[in-house]
Design goal:
This protein has 357 residues and is mostly beta strands. It has 2 helices and 24 strands. Strand 10 (150-159) and strand 11 (165-173) form a beta hairpin.
Length: 357
């Protein structure tokens, strides 16, 4: 079954390569995916990994199909589509919130930006039932062109105690003013069984060079990262209660061929691991130490630029969790042209990091 999935995806890759002559060709040394997912209808953009708490080997990948009437697709670890919701108005990025409390019951949800409706949409995992009352409007009151078009999203979860979480969605958009490009919303359950969102923070520098799409949160270290495309990756505190909107770092400057895109965080310990940034036009991933430099946690030295088979990767996610015998140290998931996502065995990624390429 694995070999059939790869052959199926390679055909899609060949087609995508023929249409992408402005991109670097896939390197002969490129990391090969273990699995290539089944195709969506339109155009994949961003994945998120949901860890099944009862059996991690049955974890799932949720991915966006970015187009009018696109949707969310749910894949098993063999790359098979096991569920989907369609008819959305250009869903862009997606992330997972664990332990959302609604009427005393905890649920896990997938949250996606619905760009052309100026909303975020929220669906239970794994059954993809809507719990957003038809969608939650974002960037209300903004007037500029595309300033309400939600694109990037990442979830920050703050543990209050063993039973209580505060859950926030950090949302980016097609364009907006520097200093308040990102809006942060606190999510909470309502008595009618749906979820509501309250703006609690506006922050984030923007160069104006292109746009900001990819956002990732490191819950344990309490940071949010986002790609200011063609410029670098910006770092801020994730907790709005710190009242600190100072930029902590701008790294990866000059190290991408053009666009800095999807961001994935892989953890090797409580404070250690890697930040992987899609070097989109190079078909590779820039890798940085999650903990920063020993003398300065806000300084990041490039460890490797790993060529991958994914073409023009927009979004990515990673996990260190043991997902069973096939993926004992987790996976890296990357969007690729050809309406697919690639699943890479982390052990193979780790070998490339250690080799520096």
């Amino acid at each position: 079954m694995k070999s059939r999935s790869i052959l199926y995806g390679l055909a899609a890759l060949t087609l995508a390569m023929s249409c992408s002559d402005q991109l670097a060709p896939v390197s002969s040394n490129a990391l090969k995916p273990i699995i290539i997912t089944e195709q969506t209808e339109y155009d994949t953009d961003d994945p998120a990994i949901w860890i099944n708490p009862q059996d991690p080997s049955k974890s799932l990948i949720v991915g966006t199909d970015k187009e009018i009437n696109g949707g969310l697709y749910l894949y098993d670890l063999k790359g098979k589509i096991v569920n989907k919701v369609t008819g959305l108005q250009r869903p862009n990025n997606v992330d997972i919130a664990y332990g959302m409390t609604i009427n005393g019951k905890k649920i896990d949800v997938a949250i996606t930006t619905e760009r052309k409706s100026n909303k975020i949409r929220i669906y239970t995992i794994p059954d993809l039932k809507p719990v957003d009352g038809g969608g939650i409007e974002v960037f209300i009151g903004e007037k500029g062109e595309d300033e309400r078009d939600g694109m990037g999203i990442a979830v920050y979860t703050k543990k209050i105690d063993s039973l209580t979480n505060e859950i926030y969605a950090i949302v980016g958009r097609k364009t907006g003013p520097s200093g308040s490009y990102l809006w942060q919303y606190r999510l909470s359950g309502k008595p009618d069984g749906t979820i509501q969102a309250e703006v609690v923070r506006k922050f984030g520098a923007y160069s104006g060079a292109k746009e900001i799409e990819a956002i990732a949160v490191d819950n344990e270290l309490g940071y949010v990262y986002y790609s200011d495309e063609t410029v670098g990756v910006r770092k801020y505190f994730a907790d709005p209660k710190l009242n600190n909107n100072e930029e902590l770092a701008l790294f990866a400057k000059g190290e991408a061929k053009r666009d800095h895109e999807g961001i994935a965080i892989y953890k090797t310990g409580d404070k250690t691991g890697y930040i992987l940034v899609s070097n989109q036009q190079n078909n590779s991933f820039l890798v940085y130490p999650r903990e920063g430099e020993a003398a300065n946690p806000n300084a990041y030295k490039l460890l490797a630029d790993i060529p991958v088979s994914a073409i023009e990767c927009d979004g990515a996610d990673a996990t260190h969790v043991n997902l069973g015998p096939e993926f004992p140290n987790g996976i890296l998931v990357a969007m690729s042209n050809g309406q697919v996502f690639h699943i890479y065995d982390w052990n193979e990624v780790q070998k490339r990091i250690q080799a520096g390429k």
